[in-house]
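Blinded run. Sample ID left blank on purpose so nobody reads anything into the name before looking at the predicted structure. Input follows.
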Amino acid sequence: MNYIVLDLEWNQSYRGKQYTVEGLPFEIIQIGAVKLDENKNVQDRWECLVRPVVYKKLHGKVSEMLGISINDLENGKDFKSAADEFLAWCGEDYKFITWGGSDLTEFQRNMKYFGVEYKFPFPFTYYDLQKLYSKVYSDGKTRRSLKAAIEELGFTEDAEYHSAINDAIYTARIFANMDFDSVSVYESIDTYRIPQSRKDEIYMNFNTYEKYISKGFKTREKAADDRTARSCRCYICNKPMRRLIKWFATSSKNYYSVFVCEEHGLFKGRMRVKQCDNGFYYDVRILKQTDEEGVNGIVDKQIKEREHRRKKRMEEHKRKCENQNQNKIKYKYR
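Blinded prediction complete.
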């Protein structure tokens, strides 16, 4: 199997979000990629300028960041030709590597908009090297920029950033030199396409935690209240678990819960409802083994959320009373 390190650059409406074309918030204008074999040896490079046909004027920040003008793109390929050629270059057996989680989503959006045949598997997994870099070199949570990572590793900065091919080369350099085997289990799941039915729902066991992605629902409320998402089995023994703390929502729009497995102890759950391009809502749930300290952290969140809601109710009650008093005064002096 080969690894395809992919980086994209894209344009958007220079007049603002209200002028965004439906189905294409960002139009790809550069594709850069590096192909490595299973031993992380560089096999080839591929790059292409793409001629924009939807957003024909470059957004000011895009032009400034990339250091290009619309004239530089006039001789580029149309997206369909570029994508077909790129996918043929990728071959048959490969896995994408990106720096961050947005490139493949935008690539698929552009594919759909411009009518490129879709050949990716489902579920569509890839490696987010930005996430893996954090697991190897930091706390697993911090997300560093590509430039910051290159500087931390002391690599030579011999090309400008924010060029698709240059950023792909930098990312490939990091990949080739990091302890990838220690984090290779942590594949990312692309959710541009979500499960279409219960039987397609995704359960991925990463040894230290499980990730679940649900089918789509017509409303956010139905997704949040879904019984399958809210009930959990132990991802170690696959037995049903007892819920210790019911799911509760926080102001950050995350849901939290605590479960216990008779054999494997305590587990904490975190769930978020997201919306995909077709308007449907879906659940992304993380289930992770924990201890009493982890449970106490969930309890603290619950207490803070209750206090936040209590204060909000008091403020609303105070405003209501003030409005009623003002109305009484107005009525008295009519």
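Unblinding after everyone has recorded impressions. The first strand starts at residue 2 and ends at 11.
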